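Input structure tokens:
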């Protein structure tokens, strides 16, 4: 039996588990931080879970806060997401970007996804990933991405949805600077491609978020290999939950 296929939110049982996990996460958050802001973030998260995102509530709130942080710090650059699925985490970042209309900043959003599902794991990914892989895993839908932006009344005029494999799209897209780069790309080769192509575009002080840093073997290996190859030191990896992590690009 393919456990990952059973648990994937592409299917009914996986969606049920995703909702159950979100309820538990919401209760924990309200117990730890019973505030109006927490309640607002939870309501926003439940508008995209499970049909539009597989990202947990703690990770969604982290993305929301980091977008607000780059705004508050006036870190220049666009918001980029590599691995979109149905746009749930994208629209959460969009909500943070458009919060407080009097201080709205003009930034583009760039959303990259194959919209064909994740590619087959490569040589440097783990045995579990290769064993559980199935064609069409996490296959997103561009129409659902547009639908959730419209549903939450988020403008699409500065949202660029780029379908295709990363090695075919990232290098051919005119992105100048990036303030926040969210990488939800699962496997070694995909994550390495994103870092090789986009890291230098991230503004110093900007944030790079990995949705699968502690989940998939290839993700953490790709990040560590990238740091070593380019002699990048003094990086502080911040844990978000049992899967995700992020760091701030050094000045």
């Amino acid at each position: 039996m393919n456990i990952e296929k059973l648990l994937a939110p592409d299917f009914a049982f996986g969606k049920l588990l995703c909702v159950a996990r979100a309820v538990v996460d919401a209760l924990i958050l309200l117990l730890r931080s019973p505030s109006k802001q927490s309640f607002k973030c939870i309501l926003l998260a439940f508008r995209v879970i499970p049909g539009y995102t597989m990202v947990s509530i703690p990770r969604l709130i982290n993305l929301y806060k980091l977008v607000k942080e780059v705004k508050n710090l006036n870190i220049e650059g666009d918001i980029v997401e590599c691995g979109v699925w149905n746009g749930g985490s994208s629209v959460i970042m969009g909500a943070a970007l458009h919060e407080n209309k009097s201080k709205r900043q003009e930034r583009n959003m760039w959303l990259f996804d194959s919209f064909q599902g994740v590619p087959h794991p490569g040589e440097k990914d783990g045995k579990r990933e290769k064993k559980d892989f199935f064609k069409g895993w996490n296959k997103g839908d561009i129409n659902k991405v547009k639908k959730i932006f419209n549903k939450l009344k988020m403008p699409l005029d500065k949202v660029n949805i780029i379908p295709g494999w990363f090695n075919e799209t990232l290098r051919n897209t005119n992105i100048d600077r990036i303030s926040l780069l969210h990488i939800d790309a699962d496997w070694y080769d995909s994550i390495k491609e994103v870092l090789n192509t986009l890291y230098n575009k991230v503004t110093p002080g900007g944030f790079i978020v990995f949705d699968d840093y502690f989940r998939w073997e290839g993700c953490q290996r790709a990040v560590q290999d990238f740091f070593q190859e380019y002699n990048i030191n003094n990086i502080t990896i911040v844990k978000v939950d049992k899967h995700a992590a992020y760091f701030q690009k050094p000045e």
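The chain has one domain: 55-248. The two ends are 48 Å apart (CA to CA).
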